[in-house]
């Protein structure tokens, strides 16, 4: 009896463990459920994190912008590609002969959600609001080239410092923003800027109702103040954002949806399950392992949409810090990378990058300055005084699964030429803070998605030496070449498209020769869209335009 | 009552210590909150102005004292990422965590106490051995694994429950089960050993000798004596739960304190991190005080 008692728990444990293992294995083998469409005419999509803000002056990321567009509209938009089209403007603006002024004619009969008509002065207010330091708009830098913008900002800053009443000092307004009548809006720039109309298509410039903006201040995000087809009706932080049709939407393209709902805090895995069960109509991120399964799945492969993203992911080498202050070392790193293999590591989710500009850009020109060549890499390292290589830390953002995965493969590639890489994975906020600080981080895995489809949004933002600041610099390589700066300044003013394109290519030639970056890949955007969703297309600038979507079919 | 006053004083000191520790840690992290505010286009001048406005140029102790004086008035500041008022963020997230915690505790007790009693009465028998094995498996399961498995099987494959989110009370069942099943095994063992001990006591033998029925002996004599250790553990566990059921909330996309804390840490949203940690500390301190009080009610010896 006693021996039986001793033996029994052992066999019971074995039996239970077997049960757990078997159930786990079988759970993994189950076929995915179809999941019918839930009732209602509401479009549901997930978001991993909550939105920072939905105020067009504040929101600055690819997740928030499609939602801002549900509620707000601007003077210009993009067609199906990256061609600018008039939106609230009657036509594209006329331009003064000196290229510094734009005149917009504003369409009639457009109303804010409150029912009040949109006037030209509202556009001037909107841009002034962005430039006003009080709004803390991350987009203010885009509009600083407007005549009188700096003087306006300095006056507001002085008022705040000296605790004077607001708008007590001159200039009270930005002199370059003028509204001679209700339907004419003029913008005067300090000097010609060929990218300015694309800047005007950014959601920062979407018109807000001044009365609402003044009334709600920082809380504007939660109140209707735009002239778009939807209004925000619920925002439960961390849980859900709900938009319903605006009762005062006055334009002919009325939305077909009753509402749009964003479910917050949904990670990729959960989003996938909810999508397959019909709890979501669309998902904007697909986890790397899922993509392989979905591509081979008879049902879900038809739901995959993909488009090359206007982005370049790269290794940034700090040109001010040894060993990367030697161009031979930077070239050696470029030669050491087997980019085709690196791309395979992330299931081929993109295209190999050998340029600064992504192929989505008209100014893109294919090139291959640094083919995979280990011998050449070793020779360059030896020439630079590192015959045995060196040790370096690569700073990687922890929640970018593709970066982490690819970084491990980069470690192997560089190891083959003697560069011993230690991976330092960090949360984005810590990574960004450290990498953007001068003489701080030698080697970082970075990436950039365009704000608007213009080469200046890559070259000027990321590689201009005269824009380097000691902290929070976007030029992570702290790359500075006065020749590049001069070419880029010239390109910004060049009105002839072909000449402008040539200038950017010249600048890219110079940058690639100096090799502050090792371009890695241009990612592809993948989304999953249920079969009952109509009118949704991936867009190279906006990713998704949900305002045009309708739901049909399986109700 | 003097002892209780001393406990209150210690609790206040604990909170103060926690606040100083978190404040120091938040300042030591190599990240710049100004970067969150200022966009990539902002120049050095703009950044310096924002830094000044946020009071980040002041000495450490001045920043800490300012934080404390505001916190004492219930003002925990605003999120530097979302501009949300921290106290409001906590008050909107707390009910979800509370509901989930209550659900979890109900499962703990509803499963744990009966199994504990059953096994105590059947010591050494087959049912006891099986319960031991199942309990040990329950205790050893990582909560995120169990959560994912239940979610996969019962929500994704069978569609019995919703996969994630919080649209109705049904969305809380799976998370509560996850949380509860992991803890239930522990409570079953706890009740088992406490009741077994009690059943071996002289007063139980006396009661039985005087002809008291098993049910009466169990419910009137053994169980009340077994409650004391249960209460101690429960107090500490509930405090831990309220502080943030991090994994369960993240598996089921529930907008509770745990999710808020994790997001704040990832964003390095210092005011929000401070707020959630202080609130969690407050919950732990409060739960311990309540357990102290309950002790005095249940066990007259402590009162004396």
Task: Write a concise keyword list for the protein shown above.
heterodimer; A: 555 residues; alpha+beta; D-Maltodextrin-Binding Protein, domain 2; Dipeptide-binding Protein, domain 1; Dipeptide-binding Protein, domain 3; 3 domains; 6-stranded antiparallel beta sheet; 4-stranded mixed beta sheet; 32% helix; globular; disordered N terminus; B: 304 residues; mainly alpha; MetI-like fold; 77% helix
Could you give the topology of this structure?
The complex is a heterodimer of chains A (555) and B (304).
Chain A: H1 2-29, E1 42-47, H2 65-71, E2 76-78, E3 84-86, E4 94-95, E5 101-105, H3 120-131, H4 149-161, E6 177-181, E7 184-188, H5 196-199, H6 210-216, E8 230-236, E9 240-245, E10 259-264, H7 268-276, E11 282-283, H8 288-295, E12 304-308, E13 311-317, H9 327-336, H10 339-345, E14 350-352, H11 374-383, E15 390-397, H12 401-416, E16 419-426, H13 428-435, E17 443-449, H14 456-463, H15 482-493, H16 497-514, E18 517-529, E19 533-534, E20 550-551
Chain B: H1 2-28, H2 33-37, H3 44-53, H4 60-72, H5 86-121, H6 126-140, H7 143-157, H8 173-199, H9 202-209, H10 214-242, H11 246-251, H12 257-267, H13 270-298, H14 300-303
Helix pairs in contact in B: 1-13, 5-6, 5-8, 5-10, 5-13, 6-8, 7-8, 8-10, 9-10, 10-13, 12-13
Structure write-up:
The complex is a heterodimer of chains A (555) and B (304). By secondary structure, chain A is of the alpha+beta class. Helix content of chain A is 32%, strand content 19%. Chain A has helices at residues 2-29, 65-71, 120-131, 149-161, 196-199, 210-216, 268-276, 288-295, 327-336, 339-345, 374-383, 401-416, 428-435, 456-463, 482-493, 497-514, and strands at 42-47, 76-78, 84-86, 94-95, 101-105, 177-181, 184-188, 230-236, 240-245, 259-264, 282-283, 304-308, 311-317, 350-352, 390-397, 419-426, 443-449, 517-529, 533-534, 550-551. Chain B folds into two domains: 2-84, no CATH class; 87-303, Orthogonal Bundle (MetI-like fold), CATH 1.10.3720. Chain B contains 14 helices and no strands. Chain B has helices spanning 2-28, 33-37, 44-53, 60-72, 86-121, 126-140, 143-157, 173-199, 202-209, 214-242, 246-251, 257-267, 270-298, 300-303. Chain B is flat, with a radius of gyration of 24 Å. The mean pLDDT of chain B is 83. Classes of the chains: A alpha+beta (555), B mainly alpha (304). Chains A and B meet through helix 1, helix 7 and helix 13 of A and helix 2, helix 3, helix 5, helix 6 and helix 7 of B.
